[in-house]
Structures are given as C-alpha cells and as structure tokens.
Amino acid sequence: MSPADTQPPSTPDDPTAHLPLLELRDGLSDVVDTDSALTETVEAFRSGTGPVAVDAERASGYRYSHRAYLVQLRREGAGSALVDPIPFGDLSALGDAIVDAEWIIHAANQDLACLAEVGMVPRKVFDTELAGRLLGYPKVGLASLVSEVLGYRMRKEHSAADWSTRPLPAPWLVYAALDVEMLIELRDAIEQELRREGKWDWAQQEFAAILDAPPREPKPDPWRRTSGMHRVRNRRSLAVVRALWEARDQIAESADISPGRILPDAAIVEAASAMPTDRDTLQRLTAFKGRGAHRHMRSWWEAVDHARRLPDSELPKQGPRYDGPPPARAWADRDPDAAARLSAARAAVAEIAEAHRLPTENLLAPDTIRRLAWSPPKDVDLDVVMTFLRDHHARQWQIALTAEALTEAMTSEAKVKPLD
C-alpha cells in the first residue's frame, strides 16, 4: 500500500495511525547524472504544475565543504527526480525551469546556500519547519511533522550518511526520495492550519525574510567554538588552540575532509592544556595517537611551537570579540537598570509568545531584546521602539505583537530578577 492509496488517520487513537512511509508512489527512478537525463528532467519540471518540493543532501561530518551531493525534487505532473550535481557543477537550467514556482523546503536556511552554489535560487519559498514553529509544534523535524500532521512514520536511518559516496546505495536513494514524497501534502495541510489560526500572513512575512536575508558573515575567531574550550585557562593556551585549529582547517580544506576527522577537538584542547615542550611529548598525548593525528604530526608540532614562542602582545584575548551587550548574567552588577529592563522585556515577550503558542525566539530574536534593554534609544516611546525593532530586522507581525509591551518594559520601574 502506498501513501497515495491511504488516508492519514484523523485522530491519534485511529488504529491506522502512523503508517510507515516505505514505498515511493512512482518507484525509484535512476539518478540524473548525464546531460541527456538532466535535459529531460528540466523539461519535465518546467511542464509540471504547482509548487515544487526541494531537498538537498550534504556530507556534513565527512567533507569540509557544505556542497550538495544530491538534490531531490517532486512536482505534480513531473514526479520525483534525484539529481547528482557533481557531474554538472551547475544546475541553473533546472533552477530556471522552476524559478516561478513556490519551492517547499524543510529548514530552508540549511539548504538554500548549497542550492545557490549550483545555481538554484528560488523567488518564493514555503518552509515547513518554520511554519511548524509558528504553529507551536513541539517537534518540527520533517519526520515529526509528517507523523503529527499527516500520520505517516518516516524512515530517518540514513540522515547522517556520507552522501559524497559514489555510487549511492539504493536504500539511501529511497530514503532521499521519501524526503520529498510528502512535502507537498504537508505544505497544504500546514497552510490550512496557518489560515485557521490567523498566522498565514505571519508565515508569508517569515518566508519573504528568508529570501531577503543577507549572506551570513563569517563569525570572528571561529577557533573559539572548539569543543571543550572552557578547560583552557590562559592566553598562551588559547594561542595553542588557535594555532592548531588553523593548521587543521588548512589541511581539511585542502583535502575536503571534515576537520574533526583529521584531528578531534579533544586533541586540540589536550595539547593546549598540556603545553608540550617538544614533538615527542606532543605525540605521546592520548588524543594524538589516532591515525589522522599521527599523519600530520609535523604540522601539529609546528603549530604548538609557534604558539609557545609568540610574544605576549600577540596572544589572543581571554574573551571573544563581540559587538553586542555583555553576558546577561553580568548585568545586575554592571547596570542594574538595564538588568531590570531586560527582565521586564523577557517576561513580556514570553507571555505574548505563550498566548499565541509560539517559541519565544520565533516571536522576537533574543539578541534584539538584549540590545534594546542594554542600550535603549533616547526618549523611548512606541514609535521609537517600533523603529528600533524594524532596524533590527523584526517583521511587521512581530512588531505589532511586541512593540507596546516592550515600550512599557523600557519605561517601567521593573524589579531586578535573576538573569540567565
């Protein structure tokens, strides 16, 4: 029995609830990896009707790059297609064929960048994950939403597979095709819920904001995100972390291998804590006994030795560079009035979010609340707060729901509460 032949259960008590989604309606098609097959696929999707379900598979955890190693699509009248972008490099012809359609993507922020790399850029999106958040679903993974909304149990056993593998095994391809099998139905059911709850316009604004968002700027000092950094206590040790991280990153990028597969974060932190004085001591450390660590031992020692010899003036600062307010836990001591404003603002936004069944972070970005509370504009009134929110990329529906409460929080005599 295929999904097309069954009806989703109407209640959780239905004996047919959570039917396993195991079969493809149209069977598993061949991977599109030749020019002739791509031409046929482009024409098929150009001739299709309605929105297009789109997904992409990367090789996170295996490769340094975040490129797409498989692109899955489904559209009424065209069926499903599994496209291997590697032989082509550029899929702009396919992107152009569906550019005027709405693209249904689950967690669009995860896939849009790798799709853009191969020339596929939508003009309109429907993000089923984000829509699920607006509707207050506690779990918004694709499998969870398909189960909750449509009543089918999806297979997720290949979610962490190495999609750069060639040829791709047939079970992986079935898994990948199933990811777009129900997206159109899920989108339609979620739209009905959004309209029923008066959140359809909110969703439209959110989807537009996804496409309007500027490219993400690289975060400063990415080496500071090394797992276990809390164990590194002084600036000289921080320099070792930085030197090893940068050496590892260069090797990983050159080989297109995930950095953690070359040298684990645990090894970097162990070296920074031990501060070895020679190469032999370094390679005797427990975390440096793996094959990847041993292969590049010369590079690791050169990095450690360089960090050990740096003058104090070139050592990294103890804390990361950040252009925003200080950590909230320090506000009560540094600026009690700001702490009071933040406490009142958080409470107000949390109350509004609960009333509308929204995650607080989707109602308003926590960073925006912190910035407003730490350094509010002069002569705060409703118009000033609305302008502040707009300047910090809040959508109109968010401003309409929160501006008045935030204005009161910025001007009231709120009592200081403990801040996380």
From TrEMBL:
Assigned keywords, A-Z: Hydrolase
Entry's Gene Ontology BP terms: nucleobase-containing compound metabolic process
Domain of life: Bacteria
A GO term, aspect molecular function: nucleic acid binding
Record Gene3D superfamilies: HRDC domain, Ribonuclease H-like superfamily/Ribonuclease H
Entry-linked CDD domains: RNaseD_exo (cd06142)
UniProt EC number: 3.1.13.5
PROSITE patterns per UniProt: HRDC
PANTHER family given in the database record: RIBONUCLEASE D (PTHR47649)
Protein name: Ribonuclease D
Organism this protein belongs to: Kribbella shirazensis
Organism classification: Bacteria, Bacillati, Actinomycetota, Actinomycetes, Propionibacteriales
